[in-house]
Amino acid sequence: MNLLKATSTALLMLSLASPTNAQIPWNIEIIKPEVIGREPGFSSSFSPINSPNYFQLGRVTVEQADGTRASLLKMLDYKTMKVTNLVVPMDKFPASHREVLAMKTVFNGDVLHYNGKVSTVKFDRRVNYKNTGEFACQYDHEKGQWSELVSLGKVDDLHFFYPMGADREENYYYYAITHRVDYASRTGEPTRYDLARFDLKTRKVDTLFTLDMPKREHYLHLDHTMISPDGRWLVLSEYGDKAWRRSYPKDAKDAQPVAYIIDTQKKKYKTCRIPDVPYGHVITPDSKYMILGSYETGEVVKIELETGKPVAQIKSTTTIFNFFLAPSGNYFLVDYDEEKCPRKVYDVRSATDLKLITSVMLDDLYSKPEMSRGLKAIMDGRLLISRTTDPKDTLNHATAVLIHRLPENIKPNEPGSSVAKRLERAETIANGKLYAGKNGIELNPPQYDMGNATSVTITSDKNVIVTGSRWLDDETSEEVITKLTRSGEKIWEVKLPTVKQAISSSGMHILTPDGGCVVYFMYYHHPKSYGIGRLALVNGNGKVIYDTQFNYLPNPNATYMTKGMELMQGGPVKIYGEIYPTPNGTSLPWTGTVSPEGKLVKSDY
Prior knowledge:
Blueprint: E1 7-9, E2 11-13, E3 27-31, H1 33-36, E4 54-63, E5 69-77, E6 82-86, H2 95-100, E7 110-114, E8 118-127, E9 130-140, E10 145-146, E11 150-154, E12 159-166, E13 172-179, E14 192-199, E15 205-212, E16 221-227, E17 233-239, H3 242-247, E18 258-263, E19 268-273, E20 278-283, E21 289-294, E22 299-304, E23 310-315, E24 320-325, E25 331-336, E26 345-350, E27 356-361, H4 362-365, E28 371-378, E29 383-389, E30 398-405, H5 418-438, E31 456-458, E32 464-473, E33 476-484, E34 490-495, E35 503-504, E36 508-511, E37 517-524, E38 532-538, E39 544-549, E40 558-567, E41 573-580, E42 588-594, E43 600-604
Antiparallel strand pairs: 1-6, 2-3, 3-30, 4-5, 5-6, 7-8, 8-9, 9-10, 9-11, 12-13, 13-14, 14-15, 16-17, 17-18, 18-19, 20-21, 21-22, 22-23, 24-25, 25-26, 26-27, 28-29, 29-30, 31-32, 32-33, 33-34, 35-37, 36-37, 37-38, 38-39, 40-41, 41-42, 42-43
């Protein structure tokens, strides 16, 4: 069996059924699970080979003819879209090389790059369990030969190898040897980077220059590396945020992160200011511009690489996580932190002026429970992948890999289409949640909603109601009901009465026909309170019609909503929950009816 040449066609058109009203504006293909092997996931603990033309999908272990076991790396070929079994035969590693590396047996070796014919592997030289040097060695799979060892640099407790990756033409692999100093005021991040590149064809090391970091109370670290498609520009970006500046107030003014734009041809560099907490990083296909975003502020900026000057800048939603640039260079997707961002979409923005083109709803793209949410850019960003998983697998291994091919352009949704209507509704709800976040209003977590009772809804008059609690000081909070336009502008706000040291829960509401709502929340009126169920009716103009408080423990007949509420014809509200008939007894199912005037007129249990 020739393990290296064993290939299989990887792609099938995605057969996972999507909702009939879902529209995904690009093609998705599926790589069958038997082709992947074992894939440990997209976690930080898994560092696959991600060369410009090859990506490691997974691996399998097989027994060879001589009884030994070999690990097969499952490599996806960008040009053929077939999967090849890659084997790097460490058992054939020359004894003379092991002697240089102080190895009796080969116990380390990371594949830095693979081009279909040659693997470039990095080895550590460890003496007394300490790393003393980094070396590169290439294995030619066609000839079955290892090359000579090449020293990449000396390392120790204060000097480390910093990988950066290969250019698209696969001429060089870029890296640095970082320097740290050992006195207290300078410990932590590197103070200097000795930049170099390993020639993937001649195996020569070409030193670029030493990059000295700006002197700061505490150094910022390099967080991201980009290499332009033409190989000319190497861009290294720093990371800084508000927490960092609060920790080092003496150095707050020069704590702003910068990008180092390195001209690899002239071996010179320039710096430019970049947004705090930079999470989106792409270079356009023409190698003229880079686009970056900020998780913290929502800034998106386009910078010319030749000059280091910004040429376009806009404000987007905060919690930017990543950018995915289409191979055409016409647009890019903006990925947000789904846990923190109310907008469950990928924004599609023009790569020319950064303006919003449209948005793709995540629920449309990930339409089945087994489809793992989240994209990953591979092969120099030219392909995107996601996965399917078995919900029963706690280790979250992939059962299939999905290939996403972004088209040349993505057009806005057709006005009035079902997709446009659903997107507009989702964005309206998100605007309400964004308003709450900006104005200190804590919302009820969606998983604790009860039936139709929730925190943000669209009213009968096409506006938005937001209900939640807001802290007045460290020990007092109040219940807030706010009405907004669909774009998130305040129409009115109502604050229900409270007292010092009283705490109001976030609560939830149902809508009324006049554009108002009925809100229910728990009210802890003093520090030792068991909590009072509280129900308020606010009409469409923001007038409080009633504000009713129910009995509370340890008094008998304490009542709590646990299963939601509904508005009955004529205005009464029916509440479904539990009642505690005795001070220390168990609860019983309870249904209460509140009159249009706010009186509890019926209590069934």
